[in-house]
Amino acid sequence: MPIDITLRAFAEVMRDAEANEVVNVILGRLPTYEILSSKMDRYWKVHEWYELLLRLRARDVDLGPIVAVERVSVALGTGWTIKHVGDDDADALWRREDGGQFVDPRVTWANLQCFVIEK
After folding, report:
1. Confidence of residue 2 (pLDDT cuts 50, 70, 90)
2. Alpha-carbon distance 67 to 75, whole Å?
3. What is the pLDDT of residues 86-97, one digit of tens each?
4. Among 35, 99, 100, 113, which residue carries the largest CB count within 10 Å?
5. Sheet holding 107-116, edge to edge
6. Distance between CA atoms of residues 76 and 33, nearest Å
7. pTM: predicted TM-score of the whole model, two decimal places
């Protein structure tokens, strides 16, 4: 069954063009995933940040949610914390202040959610 992946991230950028650069850096590290949607908006709580929301689908249908979250997190940087693992879902959290490295240094926080899509 397909695995959908949602990446929500905050990037310390001031303009749409810079936010788009961050999205392109992230997507460049995930070439084997189908892009379902991509959205970016200025974050209402911190005006110097953009909120990025990417929905992806793993092309490998035999991939389980924990493997998906592990592969995506490794592709995007170090210092991820796996927060939840279930039979049909898994998620992970990345925070700059925890000392890890993200593929784009402008990212301050990121969350991955991977879940099985019933067909």
Report:
1. confident
2. 12
3. 778 899 999 999
4. 113
5. 33-42, 50-58, 3-11, 107-116, 89-95, 81-85
6. 13
7. 0.91
